[in-house]
Write the structure tokens for this entry.
Amino acid sequence: MSNKTIAITLDKIGICTSIICMLHCAVVPVVLILGADSLLWFTELEWVEHLVIGCSLLIGLLSFIGGYRKHGQHFVPVLFIAGFLLLVSSDSIVSDWLAVLLSVAGALIIIYAHLENMKWKRIAIVR
């Protein structure tokens, strides 16, 4: 597997991780509203959330540091950092709906950052 393939794959894995995180944050309140809280035993495990966030951070760091070295676009890692800060800060918000909104917004920004990173890496490879 070439370095190009690994770099693009890291972004794709990062996108999938962010989608999982976003779905987790958005679906849990809906399931609670529907009264199916017995289905949420898995989400009560705090280590699961920490694992997903940790994977997102690790994959993002590997992907964006390598991407920045290739394409030199400052805004791409800044997008990732902004999205990650929104994601992490949502835990300290008292309002459940605001926390969900911040989590989903953070995940969407991270997904966008990975898409931009892939685009700029491909452009840098062509040059």
